[in-house]
Amino acid sequence: MDAPQDRRQELRRQLTLCRACGYCDGYCDVFPAAGRAQVLANEDLTQLASLCHNCRGCYYSCQYAPPHAFGVNLPAILAEVRSDSWDGMIWLRRPMRLFQTRGLLVALVLGLGIAAILSLGQPHPQAGGSGLYRDMSHAMMVTVFVPAFLAPIALVLGGIRRYLRSVDAGPVRLRHIRTALIRGMRLDNLSGGHGQGCNFERQDRFSDLRRKLHWATVAGFLLCFAATMAGAIMHYAMHLPAPYGLASPPKFLGATGGVLLSFGAAGLGLLKLRADRGLGDARVWGGELAFILLLLLLPTSGFALWAASGSRLAPWFLGLHLGSVLTFFLLLPYSKMVHGAFRLSALIVEAQRQQGSRR
């Protein structure tokens, strides 16, 4: 299956068998949503692929999975169609395809290049600076990072708009967003349908570990982002520039978030290395792993910078940390980070259709 249309046709074939069987209907949103569709059009396949969280429970429960002649491997074909659809949602597709196939190399070259430019491009120490601002001016940080943050966010928002149009979504109401956020935060589609977890890492046995690691990763990332916002408020609104003490909001939130993010990303990386690659999209496996490693580099480089503060190594660790942060945001629309945006969009559409079916 070399073409996206071939993969969509294979997904139709497998879902037709699934709809006739009905054994997995309580596992996640994919199966009842597939059952509601009278005809599995392309927009239905895009929606179903994004609803799937690759828990793999349906595969290990399926009587028609290989080596059966029907060859049903729904997690893999959903992952392949999902990659195809996400590829078409974001502008500038070439960077996405390059990161998917050469993710580690792209992240390494871009991250080290940016780190070298940031470290060598500024005189050390900065006149009148204190703390980290001795190694890089505040104006330099703002000039570089604000556009690098806003541009990828704009690309992702554009991708969400195209996704909603591609699946023929209706008007998005606040109740749809609220329902999707609640279900997304609970990670219902990693619960196995009964709250006992999924089969990603333990195959035919349920485990809730993957869901807990996702929670730790998201909570850590949000706390680190909150630390950045707290630092901006203290700097601009309260006229309290860095450095800050350990008990201050930026340091406390950043340290707590860094620990959670390190634990979550490391755990997800180990699970991915142990999991069966044949139940996902093998084409993008390297890019997905590179994204996890890049996510892990954010807190570890931050802790290394903290440990090196005041030493001659501080400017280099600052360049490494800021380079990893900048690389993360520049690659955000082209890495698996977009799965959060598209899966939340899929949950919004699912909430529309479920609530609409009740009226």
Automatic annotation (TrEMBL):
It comes from the Bacteria. The lineage of its organism: Bacteria, Pseudomonadati, Pseudomonadota, Alphaproteobacteria, Rhodobacterales. The chain crosses the membrane at residues 103-120, 140-160, 213-237, 252-273, 285-307, 313-334. This is Citrate/tricarballylate utilization protein. Keywords: Membrane, Transmembrane, Transmembrane helix. InterPro entries: Citrate_utilization_prot_B (IPR012830), NarG-like_sf (IPR036197).
